[in-house]
Design a protein that fits this description.
By secondary structure, the chain is of the alpha+beta class. It folds into 2 domains: 271 residues, Zn peptidases (Aminopeptidase); 120 residues, Alpha-Beta Plaits. Helix content is 36%, strand content 26%. Strand 1 and strand 2 form a beta hairpin.
Amino acid sequence: MDTQIAALLDNPLVQAARAHIERTDDLTLAHQAELSSIPAPTGGEGARAARLAQLLRQAGLTGVAADPVGNIRGWWGAPGAAPVVLSAHLDTVFGPDVAHAVARRGARLEGPGIADNARGLAALLALAETLAATRVVTRRPLLFVATVGEEGAGNLRGVRHLLDGGLRLRPHAFVALDGAGVQRVVHRALGSRRYRATFRGPGGHSWAAFGVANPASAVGEAVAALARLPNSQVPRTTCAVVGLGGGSGLNSIPQAAWLDLDLRSEDHSTLERLNEQARAALAAACDAENRRRAAPSPALTLEVTALGDRPSGSTPRTHPLVRAAVAANRALGWDAELVSGSTDANLPIALGIPAIALGAGGRSGDAHLPSEWYDNQDGATGIVRALLVTLAMAELAPPG
């Protein structure tokens, strides 16, 4: 694979494409700032999607349109079997109430979602513009996709639709552009189970009805039990209570109380075992509070509502896609960090489609905070890396 990447770097057409990426770096930053300034909460990506679609058409992609769930798709090359998919997610963790203004201080941009994932979208657009400007032709078609619903409660809705029948083509390879960075190569999908556990009871006055089963007490019992579950480092596995709520006043036993739970593991079977242990802990907390209640008051009930289910798996280190990413890093003077992550690549990995996620250059910090920032140091390098990996998978067509 090193030889293939070296041959690409020596190809005059690829050299022209690289020069174009580096020459238009300021335009890429301007697009990144513009897209970041358009609110795109999960489930409300429409305005950002419409603007990106307009830019992709201007760049020269064909067939640019929204699909039934709101993904934006466009083709480089004639649509056909076994495309190489390049994706970046549209949504952010921020609601429309958060100010999305972007401040620019030299090469540094600051604003909510500026790196995750306005950087990925800007890189996606830069690659489309570069291919069109330099007239690069590949043997396999390239499908550019900006997905909805990648973050949190979106539960990978966009890529699920794409690969669960929306595309009707099995990709040859799938590359997700997600956030900043040059070294990171995500080839292991970090699986997760997310759900809300709600305990319900009769409620009542905190003095007069004391002794009835208390949903808040059951939540406390459950949190303590979940914290005692054993942790695994190999494969790394986590169980985190990420939200609590319930109650209506200082002098009332609540009729309902709830907790939100996030379970994660790099290994599917380990995640399933943890899921069983967590659900058993919730049921035991409900039973314990019911045993304490005063007879004949009603028993608590437990309702578990699924909020997210992300599959795990991996694209092997030995697969040509991963080897291409490692070789591209090496050729550009960077070490490659093979890591796990929770991205749009999770789903194709679980379906047996070769997939990775790459940072799109630069550095970033304060992810998922309004103070998020992006520094464009080596920003163009990240896009060149994505170009090399894409061309290694799609294969350059001979001149003519």
